Amino acid sequence: MLGFVETRSVSPVFVGRAEELEILNDALARAAAGEPQALLIGGEAGVGKTRLVEEFATAACRAGAVVALGGCVEIGADGLPFAPFSTALRALRRELPEELAAAAAGQEEELTRLLPELGESTGGRHDEEGMARLFELTARVLERVAADRTVVVALEDLHWADASTRHLLAYLFRTLRTGRLVVLATYRADDIHRRHPLRPLLAELDRLRTVRRVELGRFNREEVGRQIAGILAAEPDPTQVDDIFERSDGNAFFVEELAVCAHEGCGTGLTDSLRDLLLVRVEGLSEIAQRVARIVAEGGSTVEYRLLAAVARLAEDDLIEALRAAVNANILLATPTGDGYRFRHSLVREAVSDDLLPGERSRLNRRYAEALEADPALVPADERVMRLASYWYHAHNAAKALPAVLDASVEARCRHAYSEQLRLLERAMELWDTAPEDVRDQLRPIDYTEVYPPCGCDPATTPLRYLDLMAEAAVAGRLSGERERALKITKRALHLLEDEGDPLRAAWFWVQRSRLVQALARGDGWKELATAQELVRGLPPSEVHAEVLTNVAGWSMLHEPGPDALSAAERAVEYARMVGVREIELNARLTLGGLMVDAGSVEAGLAEMYEVKERALAEGVSFVAGRAYVNLPSALDAVGRTREAVPLLEEGLTFTRRFGQLDSEAWVWANLSESLYSLGRWDEAADAAASALRVGHSAKPQSGGALCLAHLALGRGDLAEAARQLAAARGYLGTHDPMPQYTLLLSRIAIGMAVGEGRLLDARAELARALDAGFPTGTQRHAWPLLLAATTAEADASGLPAVAQGRTDVLERLREAVKKTTTDTPIWLAHEQWVRAELARAEGLDTADTWSDVVTAFECLDRPYDLARVRHRLATALLAAGGEDERDRAAELLRLAHAVAGHLGARPLSDSVALLAQRARLTLSRVPEPRAADPAEALGLTGRERDVLRLVAAGRTNRQIAEELFISPKTASVHVSNILAKLGVSGRGEAAAVAHRLRLFPADVLRSTR
Questions:
Q1: Quick one: how far is CA 806 from the chain centroid?
Q2: Taking a C-beta distance cutoff of 8 angstroms, is the pair 841, 865 a contact?
Q3: 742, burial (CB in 10 Å: exposed 0-12, middle 13-18, buried 19+)
Q4: How far apart are CA 102 and CA 87, in angstroms?
Q5: Cβ neighbours of 230 (radius 10 Å)
Q6: 38 beta partners
Q7: Closest of 397, 280, 274 to residue 329, by C-alpha
Q8: Angle of helix 543-559 relative to helix 582-598, nearest 10 degrees?
Q9: Pairwise CA distance, residues 614 & 602, whole Å
Q10: 3-state DSSP helix/strand/coil percent for the chain, to nearest 5?
Q11: How far is 672 from 607, CA to CA, in rounded Å?
């Protein structure tokens, strides 16, 4: 009977948890309907989280879902980077090999950081978007795999998760929007103390309405009785149930342990100490079996059989018998793959590990390390380096641990696990002084550093220095978001460099400090860059020199564009070429091209930017290519070549999505919104701006979307929305790092809002601040609209006594600003004419001829809204002049302006046109000519709904519709629902049939759509 009980300490009957299972099954049903689900399951250790997940996984498989399980791996006190995701993706690859391969197609190299089986990784570029790029690609792979089937990804033991795993999980929970996918994670609630690294993540996820929390409580007495009955395969004595319920307090795992102990006759003398309770059955094993259990406990969450054999140094028969005894006692379990062992419950492993003596723990770790060094094939290849580093570190052998930890830091960097890289580098710095000097002398920078350029020495022969580690750690901190730690490291490094006379290394650290200061909102970073520039002044060309100059040029382009910035960019290109640093050269050339456009060399500057884009694409320099897709279309739009910019921006969206460049994608969306606004495609502009806000990884890229939405709201007369978006943009931008391109945009919108609310004096104050700051070279694209908003406000307010004071001075300042602001392209020449016409109107000196010239200038440009506004002004002047010919011409101009305003939803312009027409007794509508009835109009479909229906009829999904029309999948879904309601049909197929029956779209249009 005893043997039977030993193999049945886990009840075969699943007890309770009906409410929790209902939540999980509901999530599965929602996911099957195409709505991704995110769940967190919390509870104290031993309460039954794993059993609940197992029951749910079994039910999900019965329902046809594919289940991928992954667990956070702990080795000593360390977690393996991305371990649960690697395990889950490996499970998906086993279950759905073709589907996963198709989903990862083209991105295998990047995804090898999570799943090495996909191929070889070359390391790639390491930048602020590196981790975000990997996260976006992971999300996209999961969405694609779950497009046609329900997939459950379950991650256990999140309390052990490394920082990279936590960040990836948070990203998935925030961004998954499509696919039949359930992502759930479990964690120990009682382990989450105030300083636990999981605590901030849980707080963040609590704020997401899309994440459901499931808290597992303890069993009540009835449930404990049913659990004991399942374990004993017999109805227990009520007194025994009362005793076990009281002592276990309803914890499922403690119920199991107490039930087994009671059945074995050891229950009466059992101590109340938790650790002793957990050790009781371990101490009942033979001495050899106890020894094996101690070895497994120190090896990590799971220990491979061959590694265990090498460490235990027992005869094979003795080892197998010891393992059999531990398995029969339900202390150890064989792993699902059958090649190793783990403790059935982590609480027992922790208790056994805690019971080890300090010297015993070090000895076991040393044996693990020695065994792994002797035969690296004992553990999976993707875990080998990390585990060896952990074993040597916990063996307290600095000579062996230092190189092993450094090797592990390189592995973490290659996987974009920058938080783990930082932790390992800090561990290496801790070991540095205790490691023997001859060991340190054998280490080389070329083996362990990547971001830190050689400063006048040969990295293949020069020993690794402590400063090299600090440099690598500073960048790892910046890339992982641990900017405070990185800033402290740079401060310490610069302190060490004060007496070394090494200007190149010092300059490099000052560049890093500049980036960190800006990212932490501690300043604009110029002081630090200027220090770096001074340090390299007069030194021979070097990679550091080129990088400093490139950063100075980039900073100047954004903060103080002009001749000095242009000169810095030219020198950066020259130095990069001299030292053969291609990526820095392309990056500097892109900056140079933009500055050339700003300086008036439009064609030469654009040609340079086009060439950089093509070279970056051809050479695989994705960072520069992504930046080119932002800056080149922006430069085109700045000179009025907006139609040329839009296809480039659409191409840029494809590129940035492919490479997971979230911030670059957000900038592209914001620039596309601005271009679509100019072209009179306001609905699409709003969708693009919303996309910029949605995908932006950092604050500044999101500000572009908010500014575009604020501008649109002003044009449509929604002052409340404009105020909300303006406040959001200011929040994203902060006050620590002002740049003209943003301050001028903010001022223009603030002036528009003040005017719309009747606060002209506030508008004048905002204008004064902008004029005091001045308009640097290259800011004319923002300066002219600001000047136009101010002069229009003054002209509209002419004759109002309340604002008469100071009016003359304001107009004079505006005239002076007009004289100084650049007009180097047709678009800004047209704006100059418009602003001068408004100044004339402000003084009552404008005529029909004045406005006729402005209209003529804008008729050559792709600016329908601006053209409608100046036509309104010309119509006003014509009506003031009198005469029938003038009235007829004014009526036509007002009709055209009113049609544009109505199409755009520009209510203030529409109201102004209608009021003028009413005063002049003009009709804004022509007598319509008889025409064939439009079935779509008869059905009440809007223009956008017609576009959506065309794509539905062509068989497109909501996601495909969203991508083609540059709207979100959610917006596409709303349009489809509205269409189904208006057509009176129940599904997409019926809607397509109606479209075909009524011949709403020619067959050739549908064929081209396909």
A1: 49
A2: no
A3: buried
A4: 19
A5: 18
A6: 183, 211
A7: 280
A8: 30
A9: 18
A10: 70, 5, 25
A11: 21
Is the confidence at residue 625, as pLDDT, over 70?
Answer: yes
Sheet containing strand 303-304, edge to edge, reads 303-304, 340-343, 332-334
What is the residue type of 936? A
Q: Check: CB of residue 615 under 8 Å from CB of residue 600.
A: no
Q: How many CA atoms lie within 13 A of 297 on its CB side?
A: 26
Question: pLDDT digit string (tens) for 661-680?
Answer: 888 899 999 999 999 999 99
Helix (H) or strand (E) holding 212: strand 211-215
C-alpha dist (Å) from residue 473 to 27, 427, 454, 977: 42, 10, 16, 52
pLDDT digits (tens, 9 = 90+) for 222-249: 888 888 888 777 788 888 888 777 777 7
Q: 852 and 874 in contact (C-beta within 8 Å)?
A: yes
Mean pLDDT of 745-770: 93
Q: How far apart are CA 835 and CA 841, in angstroms?
A: 10
Which whole-number Å values give the CA distances from 172 to 196, 313, 540, 934, 963, in the listed order? 21, 44, 47, 45, 20
Classify 734 in phi/psi space as left (phi over 0), alpha (psi -120 to 50) or beta.
Answer: left
859-890: pLDDT as tens digits: 988 899 999 999 999 999 999 888 888 888 99
Coil, helix or strand at residue 70: strand
Place of tokens 């307090």: 249
Residues in the chain: 1010
Amino acid identity, position 916: L
| DSSP, res 378 | G
Q: Which amino acid is at 348?
A: V
pLDDT, position 374: 95
3 state SS for 779-808: CHHHHHHHHHHHHHHHHHCCCCHHHCCCHH
935 has which bridge partners? none
Taking residues 761-781, what's their average pLDDT?
91
Q: Is the dihedral of CA 898, 901, 904, 907 positive or negative?
A: negative
For residue 347, CA distances in Å to 34, 279, 307, 343, 350 come to 38, 10, 23, 9, 5
Q: How far apart are CA 839 and CA 795, in angstroms?
A: 7
Q: How far apart are CA 190 and CA 199, in angstroms?
A: 11
Strongest mean pLDDT among 475-489, 852-866, 924-938: 852-866
Sequence-distant (≥ 6) Cβ neighbours of residue 500 within 8 angstroms:
none
Q: What is the rounded average pLDDT for all residues in the chain? A: 86
What is the amino acid identity at position 693? L
On whether the CB atoms of residues 371 and 311 are closer than 8 A, the answer is yes
Cα 220 → chain centroid? 43
Q: How far apart are CA 8 and CA 674, in angstroms?
A: 67
User: Which parts of 679-800 fold into alpha helices (H)?
Assistant: 682-695, 699-715, 719-733, 740-756, 760-773, 780-796
Q: Where are the alpha helices (DSSP H) in 823-968?
A: 826-842, 848-859, 864-881, 884-904, 907-919, 935-938, 943-953, 958-965
**Residue 135 pLDDT grade (very low, low, confident, very high; cuts 50, 70, 90):** confident
CB 181 within 8 A of CB 142: yes
Strands 303-304 and 340-343 turn out to be antiparallel
| Pair 645, 608: CB distance under 8 Å | no
Q: Decide which of 253 and 63 is more confident.
A: 63
Q: What radius of gyration do the chain's Cα atoms show?
A: 34
Across the range 654-661, mean pLDDT stands at 82
Is pLDDT above 80 for 263? no
Tens of pLDDT, residue by residue over 713-744, are: 999 999 999 999 999 999 988 888 889 989 99
Q: Which amino acid is at 774?
A: G
**Count of Cβ atoms closer than 10 Å to residue 30 Cβ:** 14
pTM of the model: 0.73
First-to-last alpha carbon distance for the chain, in angstroms, is: 70
How does pLDDT run across 290-327, given as a tens digit for each residue?
999 999 999 988 899 999 999 999 999 999 999 999 99
